[in-house]
Design brief:
CATH superfamily: von Willebrand factor, type A domain
Shape: globular
Mean pLDDT: 83
Number of helices: 9
Order of helices and strands: HEHHEEEHHEHEHEHH
């Protein structure tokens, strides 16, 4: 009973905390956390395919156009590598994408996650189990504590497995609680399911991971297919609001035709 009460109090406290905005916040079209799987099931090569695929997607001209075409012309973005709850998380700094140069700078920051020249100190994959909910709660705190106020707030979860119990018996937030916290903070969770080890993982993500208005799942057949899938996913996330702006519809539909895989 004591264990349940402590967990419940912590849960309520987080709900209140996550709803508190910083005193002054910069307006952006979207706050986006790219939360990528670095658990034990992801090899070094597979991890690198996630990183390089995301960096390559940011070079797509139509995706760049979408990033810079919203009401503020700015997207606040950060990446997060998550794994088992007992392992460290590896976040990047927040970057404001508001020009070609700032998009390039963020792409280069992603590539430094797995830079062989800095192997001794690089931030990279964690290990252990697949603590999806714990990763989401960490991403929620990243959003809560930043200095942006986005028209939308999105966590982009990519992974190759279902949520597992934490190693070493550590008490953490699991997916059901994480989704409630995301709803309380008005954050959408989208999913990119990598089907290498589980051909029905996209169905699991659909039922257990995604949350919020317009939430969706994109599937990648394997890590090689990640580049195509993350490109489509980023496009849908970033252009969601553009589709609802009358003066942007022509540009949006044209870009969609060019970009669609």
């Amino acid at each position: 009973m004591r264990h349940f009460t402590g967990r419940f109090v912590r849960f309520v406290f987080l709900c209140v905390l996550l709803n508190a905005l910083p005193a002054s916040a910069e307006e952006v079209d979207l706050e986006l956390v790219l939360a990528m799987d670095g658990s034990g099931s992801v090899s070094a090569e597979e991890f690198q395919l996630q990183i390089e695929g995301t960096a390559a997607a940011l070079q797509e001209p139509s995706l760049r156009q979408a990033m810079l075409s919203g009401p503020t012309g700015k997207v606040a973005i950060a990446a997060l590598i998550w794994s088992d709850a007992a392992f460290p998380k590896y976040p990047t700094e927040w970057h404001v994408l508001q020009s070609e140069d700032t998009i390039d700078a963020f792409a280069q920051r992603l590539l430094r996650f797995n830079n062989p020249a800095n192997a001794a100190t690089r931030q990279g994959k964690g290990g252990g189990g697949t603590a999806i909910g714990d990763g989401i709660v960490y991403a929620l705190e990243m959003i809560r504590s930043n200095h942006f106020n986005g028209l939308r707030k999105v966590i982009d979860v990519s992974g190759d497995g279902v949520e597992t119990d934490p190693w070493f018996g550590k008490e953490v937030f699991m997916l059901p609680e994480a989704r409630v916290l995301a709803a309380a903070q008005n954050v959408t969770i989208n999913g990119l399911a990598i089907l290498t080890d589980n051909s029905k993982l996209d169905q699991y993500y659909q039922m257990n991971v995604i949350q919020g208005p317009g939430a969706f799942v994109v599937k990648a057949d394997d890590f090689v297919d990640f580049h195509r899938a993350i490109k489509l996913k980023l496009w849908r996330e970033i252009s969601y609001k553009l589709a609802q702006l009358p003066h942007k519809r022509t540009d949006f539909n044209l870009a969609l035709q060019v970009f669609a895989p």
